[in-house]
Amino acid sequence: MAITSSFESIVITNVTEYLSCVWMELTLAIFAALSYFVLSRRAATSKASRKLLSMHSPKEGLQDSDPEPTLAQMATKALRQGNIKDAVAFVRQLAGTQAGRVPANIAFRVLAAIARTAKFEDALAEVLVLKGKIHSGPLEAATADALKCGNLGACYRLDQAATALSIAKSQQTFQTLATAYATDAAAMRQLVHEAPTPFSKAFAELVLGAQAVVNDPTLAAEVLDKLNHVDAAALKRRSSSQSLASRSTSASADGSEKGSSNRSSPRNSSEGDSALRTDSLLETCKAAAAANPKIPQEIAMRANDIRSCGRNGDLAGALKVFERLDQQKAETTLVINSIMDACLACKDLQKAFDYFSQAKSKQLADVVSYNTMIKGYLANGQESVARQILSELSQTEMTATRPSYHGLLNARVMAGDLRGAWKLIADMQLADLSPNAITCAILLKAKSPSLSEVSKVLALIDAMQEPMDEVLFLSVVDACIRTKNTDKLARQMDRFMRQGNAAGLSAPTYGMMIKAFGQARDIDKVWSLWKQMNGCKVVPTSVTLGCMVEALVANGYTADAWQLVCKLQAEQSTRPLVNTIIYSSILKGFASARETAKVMTVYQEMKSQKISPNRITYNTIMNAFAQSGQMQRVPALLDDMTNAEPAVKPDIVTYSTMVKGFCNSGNVDQALRVVKDMKVKGGCTPDEVIYNSLLGGCAKEHRCDDALQLLQDMRECGIAPSNYTLSMLVKLMGRARRINQAFTILEDISNEHNLQINIQVYTCLIQGCFNCGQAGRALEVHKKIIAEGVSPDAMTYSVLIRGCLQAGMVDKAADLARCACGCGPMEKCRGDPPGLPAGCLDEVVAALGGPGDENARKLTKELEDFQKKVSQKHGGADRKW
After folding, report:
1. What confidence tens digit (pLDDT) does each residue in 178-195 have?
2. Count of domains in the chain?
3. By residue range, what is the domain housing residue 248?
């Protein structure tokens, strides 16, 4: 029993101990499970946070202890493996976290990958979903990398990808592509058409350097035309004797002797003279092109041939080149655009549209295709169709460019529809295309812009991010001159100068500014610009000097202009600037001031410097004689004209000036002889101006018969008399007391030439009636004037009232005074009454008996009351009768 009890107690103890261990292990297991669950959840949260952080971080190389890659890493891996489709899917997700933009480093890898792939078209189709999501920086880096590796084929593909993906090209990208296309005239020409104008000097030098290789002389002219004046002049001088490329070769050869340090660190093309490195880059491109058989040189060459045929008007030749290409080569965007361009150059719009339709159906049309058709329809006057093409472009996946709008904008501006032009500007801005220098220059081309329109364009210029170039500044100067807005011109000029352009301004630009401030009579600014031009070492042209001289002469500073010309004439370097036109301007200034002695001094100096006077010069001197009454000098001047080499023949202005001078000096007989010689020897027919001068001379000398003979000569020559002619005739007949003949002449001429007699002629007729003692007839003329609807002026009523007073018709004079002021019993003219000249009413009051006379007081009161009514009608403005 004792043993059994002992055994049971042992068993119970062991079981209890075993159960305790099991419970302990179970408790520990549960605790461990709970701990694992909590810790695993925390780790998962931390990993998700790190993943989200990697998605939002643009930095590469960020190492994480977690093995799961980020979207950027997965996209990079897919690109490295050539799996474009998966890479684009990852990039789209990544762009969604980057405000719709592809990070620069990933965009660079995408562009580099599609440029290297053998299936470029398929790869590009996959990447089209990223259109508008890649900015210009990655494209610039990718093209530079491709050129550095000598892969010109990649440069071509990157250019095409930029168009398809709507990636803006930076200036550096254009320069890189210009280097890559050095041996491809067609691609180079397309690049020139696409590059924004005015071209940078670096880009232009690269294109001109390549032009020597591709042998396309028309390209040079186009590039120089799209440069600003200063750079174009510099490049023209540089390329006058040999091509730019050969000059660069010489420069490189000279530089090689100075050590390798210069070669190892070439200057940046945007900061220095890129021509110094053009030749070495061209040699690199040639070698790369020879080593890379994949470049589509044949397609590029055939496209260039097609365009060349089109420019030469040979559409048949262009079509023959196009038809010889096999289907694969013909169905490329470059070739299709080339044949469209050729069709438009040969004015076959329908055929160009057919090719355009084919390109659209085969998805080969790009923005250039649409822009080409817009340009074609505009050139054909079909602006509405061009608008439809632009609308169609906006509905595609492609993005319209500024050239898409500029053609239509120019059409609206040339049509004078500025409202339509500004509507296009609004459409551009809605399409996220901000106006640039070309846009503003087009707007400033308007024929008659208002001050408000010019102000709106200047506001656009102020909002431009890029600095104003000289071409746009010239347009601003011209518009401000036309609208006489020198205040805004001064502000724009200050802005232009602050951009550091003072040293780069050309002489023509200074000339236009001098002209503008000369017209504004700001002589201080004129001299300031002239001194600034000299300080910047800008050599003036004859046109610039002409603007300066004209500004001084027009403002009465002819002596200063003459002093300036003498100074320039004394310098060997500036002597060629002084020409006949400049001398003529100075002669005109002294002639207007009637300083005949100085006129002759300038003329003699002109002859001593062997500067040949022209007809304008002689006419200016002749006018000086006519104004100063020194007609005795005329024979000697006519001899000079005859003996000049070559001889200068008098024209109608010369004869007119002589006739006027002789008539003013009281020598009508000599004036008549001039007209006779003019008909016989000069071979000229007198015009109305000459006949009016003769009639004026006859009127001064009371030569009625000669005047009537001149009127008969005018009829025989078919010259219709004007109201000015009639006024002199009527005045002459009135003074000669042949008033009946004056009435007859007026009736005959008005019926013969359907001429409406004006108030000045009628006023002369009224004065003639009073001179002949026919006051009643003068009043009848007044009634006739009112009946015909001709409005008498204050001078008409002055003649009527004073004539009546001289005739003793005081009451009639008072009635006429009332009539002139719009009241009284007599018939009145239409519209506002003209009133009376100062002193005329006082004469009527004095004739009535003075201010104390009852009738005089009554007349004065009536006119004062009426004056108050008129004053109230015109808003309180005080009018003098």
Report:
1. 888 876 777 787 888 888
2. 4
3. 180-252+273-291
